[in-house]
Amino acid sequence: MHKVNKLTEGNIYQALFKLALPIMGTSFVQLAYSTTDMMWVGRIGTKAVAAVGTAGFYTWLAVAFILIPQIGAEVGVAQAVGRKDPVAAKSYIQHSLQLIICLAVVYGAVMFTFRDALIGFFRLGDAEIISQAITYLAIAACGLLFYFLNPVLTAIFNGYGDSRTPFWINSLGLVVNMLLDPLLVLGWGPFPRLEVAGAAIATVIAQAVVTLVFLRHLRRQPELFAGVKLLQAPDRAYIRQIVTLGLPVALKNGLFAAIAMVIARIIAQWGPIPIAVQQVGSQIEAISWMTAGGFQTAMSTFVGQNYGAKKWQRVQKGYAVGMTIMFVFGLAASLLLIFAARPLFAIFITEAETLRAGIIYLRILGLSQLFMCLEATTAGAFNGLGNTVPPSVVSILFNGLRIPAALLLSATALGLNGVWWTISISSVFKGTVLPLWYLWHSKQLAAKELQTSCA
After folding, report:
1. Which of 67, 210, 237, 423 falls 20 to 30 Å from 267 in CA-CA distance?
2. How many separate domains does the chain show?
């Protein structure tokens, strides 16, 4: 195993960067799966992009279920490591894996069985798009166990402070996906042209490879997984703790995905172009929010280990350092989306009408990238403290307001652009309110820590 990053001592900048860079790299790798699919599917046409994007809402929604054991493993393991309690760490590992396997089987069965109705929800109105979306969803459902397992296995290593191992393993899966996409989507060489189905098959195979490599690697890590018994009856106390940690985050992300699905239904009235614009645009925008999400995980692990080790001043300094780093990155991301919108969107789709709409989307969403980065970093700090409720409350509140706001603004002269403004403005509010909440909460904790030390 790689040397674990000692987050409870030494230079904070160095500790955060050593942990965060591989995690951000892993986030980009996970993003690159769908981006690679979208690039190759984009060569088929706007309808194919709309089909993959529509089906993708349900794999996005699945992330809400994944997050319950993922956050439980990440925070539980990190705090146990900070307390130097290996028995508790292994218990969190065992119960997180048991929970994710059960969730994968149930969600996959529902997604496969009700695939027609699930795609029908969007009222796409185009038989070709509907057929392709159903096909993609059915294939994705068959490989859902791998899709669920890999983030939890990644979180376990991150919780220990070893973010390099999952980065390299997930990168291997990306390479497999990149090699298979042109072969299966466009039918290069002796392979048949499977188009949308080919993109789904390539992703499933790549994720299966990642899971197999993870399992092979785990056999060489007795310090992490010796004594982990997946067939043993779970301890309700640990399941309860994992759900308590992960459920608020899962609800936040699940409602976020559900709200995005309603927004997609709203924009569907303008035809397939806005659907494709949102799907491609979100892939580009994800450059910033996946980076922020990776840094969020690093902040969660850093805060979790130091909070477990009762090093409160280091927690406060780590948060200040993290916010400074992400302020710089978020500002750069905003400027990039605003001033380089045309060349960025043209990487995916060059059809004139879709490109024009895509440029507008990126410029409007570019205004909120800085605030999104600040929100994600602060959410990571809250998670590390074991208090996952505030980020969930802020996210649910302002994301929920997107639906009525989108309906109101889209009915004005803004039209479709009113929907994009709704998304951007709500992100600005989230990135302002949550850091203010954290500053208040940290003062309360600091006062308690001072009282405890004086006593």
Report:
1. 67
2. 1
